[in-house]
Amino acid sequence: MRPAVLVARKVFPQVVERLREHFDVEVNEEERVWSHEELIARLRGKQGVYLTPTNRIDAAVLEACPGLKVVANMAVGYNNLDVPACSARGVLCTNTPDVLTETTADFGIALLLATARRMAEAERFLRSGQWSNWSFDMMMGRDVHGTTLGVLGMGRIGQAIARRAAHGFRMQVIYHNRSRLAPEIEVSLNARYVGKEELLRESDHLMLVLPYSPASHHAVGAAELAQMKRSATLINIARGGIVDDAALAEALRERRIAAAGLDVFEGEPAVHPGLLDVPNVVLTPHIASATVRTRLAMANLAADNLIAALGCGPRAGQPPS
Ligand code: DGY
């Protein structure tokens, strides 16, 4: 008998077709995210689930769906999965690293430029008819080239950003990470390992690229913001919850840092109202990996993982690293 799998969010039709070659597939064809209860109800009796970061797999799901064997997450981040609970029940979790690294790094740099050079603010200014003349001090921002970029979390995406910063923008790169990079990689990225305090103190622009976990919850809160330069920008393309959004909104309002660029939010799609109220923040709706090519690659990799892990294909499943 063919395994039964659930595709919990709408995804590229050609990817669903691939899954149908191997499995009995039920797809969420709705535009909305199913509630946790709906997910559980649909998942009963299925062996696999194709998931996006909008749904979570936790002990309640595992308890209600004892036949579940594989969770294929279409994302590199997997903070929506209770991996220890899955492992304890022998449920294999897979994610989609590598295929989104360069695209996400491009976006990190784009958001940094947009933030430092006040692009969203300038566009709002122009569209609202406020531009009456050129003036010497209109929309002055901060330089990116030749400044110091701090990278918190130096995994694949952090390194791809550091490479762009060092070689494209002649930035000095400093970074903090759980472990230090090999010396030859540090040299190739022009990157210097520093403690977290020095990173906060010395960065002209601080880029957050670390995974979310209880250990990284509010890694940047009021105390950390207070240590940053008043001229600094903060960019979060990692996960909501790494930044204390309420503390950030306050720091931006009081100009304790210059500006922020945020692609991810605590409790998204809700956005802290204080962030919507201040002009010196660029807000995007979790789109760092959203190019046609990369989203298709992520979707296909998640399908490959599900096919391989349920024993239907040649590739090995790819457990989160
Ligand atoms: C990821 O892959 O983790 C991105 O944030 C998309 O959700």
UniProtKB/TrEMBL annotation:
Q: Which domain of life is it from?
A: Bacteria
Q: What sequence ranges are listed for the domain D-isomer specific 2-hydroxyacid dehydrogenase catalytic?
A: 5-311
Q: Ranges for the D-isomer specific 2-hydroxyacid dehydrogenase NAD-binding domain?
A: 109-288
Keyword Oxidoreductase tagged = yes
One family name in Pfam for this protein: 2-Hacid_dh
Q: Does the keyword Cell membrane apply?
A: no
Q: Which keywords appear in this protein's UniProt record, sorted alphabetically?
A: Oxidoreductase
Name the family.
Belongs to the D-isomer specific 2-hydroxyacid dehydrogenase family.
From the Swiss-Prot or TrEMBL record, give the protein name.
D-glycerate dehydrogenase
- Record the organism: Caldimonas mangrovi
